Amino acid sequence: MHSSVFEISHAPIPMSKWARAGNLPDWFYEQICDYAENADPEQRRNAISQLCRALGSLCALDGDRLIISPQIKESYFHKGYSCFITTAKKLAQIDYKTFSGCRTTPTLSLVLDKLNDSYEDKRGVYIYLSETGELITLDRWLRTTDFSKSFYIDGTINYHY
Fold first, then answer.
1. Which range of residues forms the domain containing residue 91?
2. Fewer CB atoms < 10 Å away: N or C end of the chain?
3. Quick one: 71 exposed, middle or buried, by C-beta within 10 A (0-12, 13-18, 19+)?
């Protein structure tokens, strides 16, 4: 499977200084991706279009300027929340023997993975914050970012997981 890493900044960065696949931290290669490559211009445009579609009507693109409404937090997570609640209810039904490992079953691990994925997709889109060099999931970025300002999409990196 393929996904993207988007370099995000508060001011446009010259193309010659955009983040490249080599800027991604070691942990990303060790835990998440098999390989990463710099997006060519067409791949970059397509990836940005997909990101905007995923964010929905509360996202607008003006050139490389990304404008996201502060209401994104109220709307973006509805599907994940529904899955989270359903999965949490399944977890609440797991008995002590399964929880403690006295009874082995792949169910517990699968349900925990689903719970974690519904909160934060670690095999999806990532945001590379150029000011800090931090790499975080799109979900974490959306939960923690102040959207009263606009952002710029600079480098785009494709990765395989």
1. 78-116
2. N
3. exposed
